[in-house]
Amino acid sequence: MTQILAIDQGTTSSRAIIFDSDLQVVAQAQEEFPQHFPRSGW
């Protein structure tokens, strides 16, 4: 079975989606994370 893993690395979260050979979503997950800045206003 062929599957495709798509990864989206965003500013506030990471997301992964697995598609099958018919491009139907098999599984997906998302994890949000805090942003850290060296100085206020950056």
Automatic annotation (TrEMBL):
InterPro entries: ATPase_NBD, FGGY_N. GO terms for molecular function: kinase activity. Pfam families: FGGY_N. It comes from the Bacteria. GO terms for biological process: carbohydrate metabolic process. Residues 4-42 form the Carbohydrate kinase FGGY N-terminal domain. Gene3D superfamilies: 3.30.420.40. This is Carbohydrate kinase FGGY N-terminal domain-containing protein. It comes from Paracoccus shanxieyensis. The lineage of its organism: Bacteria, Pseudomonadati, Pseudomonadota, Alphaproteobacteria, Rhodobacterales.
